[in-house]
Write a structure and sequence with these properties.
Largest sheet: 5 strands, antiparallel
Distance between the termini: 25 Å
Bound molecules: ligand EPS
Order of helices and strands: EEHHEEEEHHHEEHHHEHEEEEEEEEHH
Shape: globular
CATH architecture: 4-Layer Sandwich
Strand content: 15-25%
CATH class: Alpha Beta
CATH superfamily: Chorismate synthase AroC
Oligomer: single chain
CATH topology: Chorismate synthase, AroC fold
Number of strands: 17
Length: 402
């Protein structure tokens, strides 16, 4: 990212998580209450393990805000691990007085073995604590701030679960907005209502019938000591043309989004618009024809491009699909090798989730929001919200404005 940057710190069972977000312009209204809903949403989902009964993620803003508004200085945030008191010996900062048993059986599909080799560690806890998806709590806090910035310019980011283990819901943002402009207030209102229903559903799925089947699949996987992955759809609305750029590889919005989303643990693929489907049809059936109407401006016959052409937003809804693998911590573990004895052994098992796709959807929203907020800052420039708003207002007056 060019204007925004963020770092996270913290181990899964350590004292807590830290996020530092820098580059948010001055003058954005922000309080912990703006971040709380996303932290809560990330803890959701049928198929999560016991840990989510312990944690009640809340954020303490340590810097970067005064009298309810950002200062333009780094925003530091702290989220406490409520599980920490149960881990003070195993995760002590000092040498333990009593020896603590090391973990020796790496899990196939996890960071364990490659991490142990890379960092020359004999206890796989030294790897798993940081590779745990607990870290995504800090990303969601940073993403919630980015979302506030986007909202100040009418940009909204949504997500929902499309499928679990191949069980497919029938409702997609791509289908919902097909051939209709997302700037239509009535259509937008019914999309928002749909997304509100998604929020109250156990798997964040828009299709209630498919969801019942997905829940049964998760129950079945839990009984077998197995785990399930799935697909998330992201939709960002209210974007104007020109975020990102065609001029260089590291300015292309699709590349930036794919990289950010692929950095989420367990994410194995990202598609934009029609995605891999573009290989199946000729160009004449793929590309979205261009129309213009006075008052309405430019619009498209469809949105196979998913809102991005030439590495830039084109003003249509941004549609992404994010593919998540089943989690590698299995209650009925796969075969592995004890790294101390080099003898065959079952992989390590700790308490974990059977399915975390609904949680990953919120993380995917956060990463999308951070990339879009960065692109917005690059496009509009300025160090304060009021400066950005002046630039934003001027876009409507250029001859090829939107
Ligand atoms: C995770 C294992 C589980 C999950 C965790 C990710 O944690 P624990 O080992 O404490 O039971 O709950 O996710 C979170 C803690 C979270 O906040 O999302 C793993 O091994 O990646």
């Amino acid at each position: 990212m060019e204007k925004l940057r963020f770092l996270t710190a913290g181990e899964s069972h350590g004292q807590g998580l830290v996020a530092i977000l820098e580059g948010i312009p001055a003058g954005l209204r922000l309080s912990a209450a703006d971040i709380a809903p996303d932290l809560k949403r990330r803890q959701r989902g049928y198929g999560r393990g016991g840990r989510m009964q312990i944690e009640k993620d809340t954020v303490r803003i340590l810097s970067g805000v005064r009298y309810g508004k950002t200062l333009g200085s780094p925003i530091a945030m702290f989220m406490e691990n409520l599980d920490w008191p149960n881990w003070t010996a195993k995760m002590a900062l000092e040498e333990p007085v009593e020896p603590v048993a090391a973990l020796h059986m790496p899990r196939p599909g996890h960071a364990d073995l490659a991490g142990m080799i890379k960092y020359r560690q004999e206890d796989l806890r030294n790897i798993l604590e940081r590779s745990s998806a607990r870290e995504t709590t800090a990303r969601v806090a940073a993403g919630a701030v980015a979302r506030r910035l986007l909202a100040a310019f009418g940009i909204e980011v949504y997500s929902h679960v499309l499928s679990i283990r191949g069980i497919q819901g029938g409702i997609t943002a791509a289908g919902f907005f097909k051939g209709r402009t997302s700037r239509d207030p009535e259509l937008l209102a019914s999309w928002r209502a749909l997304m509100e229903r998604v929020e109250s559903s156990p798997l964040a799925c828009a299709d209630a019938e498919a969801e019942t089947e997905m829940i049964a699949a998760i129950d079945g996987a839990r009984e077998k000591g197995d785990t399930l992955g799935g697909v998330i759809e992201i939709a960002a609305l209210g974007l104007f043309p020109g975020l990102g750029s065609h001029v260089h590889w590291d300015r292309r919005l699709d590349g930036l989004l794919a990289g950010a989303l692929m950095s989420i643990p367990a994410i194995k693929g990202v598609e934009v618009g029609l995605g891999l489907g573009v290989t199946l049809k000729p160009g004449s059936q793929i590309h979205d024809e261009i129309f213009h109407e006075s008052g309405q401006g430019f619009y498209r016959g469809g949105n196979n491009a998913g809102g991005i052409e030439g590495g830039m937003s084109n003003g249509e809804p941004l549609i992404l699909r994010v593919h998540m693998k089943p989690l590698p911590t299995l209650a009925r573990p796969l075969r592995s090798v004890d790294v101390a004895t080099l003898q065959p052994q079952s992989a390590h098992h700790e308490r974990a989730d059977v399915c975390a796709v609904p949680a990953a959807a919120v993380v995917a929203e956060a990463m999308t929001a951070l990339v879009l907020a960065d692109a917005l800052c690059v496009k509009l420039g300025g160090d304060s919200i009021s400066e950005m708003q002046q630039h934003y207002a001027s876009l409507a007056h250029v001859p090829l404005g939107w």
